[in-house]
Amino acid sequence: MSGSVLHSADAFGPGDSSGDLARRSVRGGAISLVGQAAQLLFQVGGTVVLSRLLTPADFGLVTMVTAILALGVLLRDAGLAAATVQAKAVTRDQCSVLFW
């Protein structure tokens, strides 16, 4: 078997925390920052393209729907992701609820 395969026993058991936590934290933060920047770039770019293609009335409708969808995204997980990250142990059922 490949060394990169993650088994459920490894994923849900106590992890090995002997690695360099500071290096991994900085790397994770940098990846998150790049992801957020890319998301912002795509959103602004999409808005610019839509503003050139749509009539003002259509663009106003798209803007209203976008605002409602943005609110839905904020309320989507109700903080479950943050709670899961901070939990000492996560069960398979909790991961399933978080996924669905």
Describe what you observe in this structure.
With 100 residues, the chain is mainly alpha-helical. The chain has one domain. The chain contains five helices and no strands. It has helices at 8-12, 21-53, 56-75, 80-86, 92-99. The longest helix has 33 residues, at 21-53. The chain is elongated and about 55 Å long.
Strand content: under 5%
Number of domains: 1
Mean pLDDT: 80
Q: What order do the helices and strands follow? A: HHHHH
Number of strands: 0
Could you give the distance between the termini?
Answer: 30 Å
Radius of gyration (CA) equals: 20 Å
Largest sheet: none
Segments where pLDDT lies below 50 for 5+ residues?
none
Shape: elongated
Count of separate DSSP helical elements = 5
Category by helix and strand content: mainly alpha
* Helicity range: over 70%
Features:
mainly alpha, single chain, 100 residues
Summarize the structure.
With 100 residues, this protein is mostly helical.
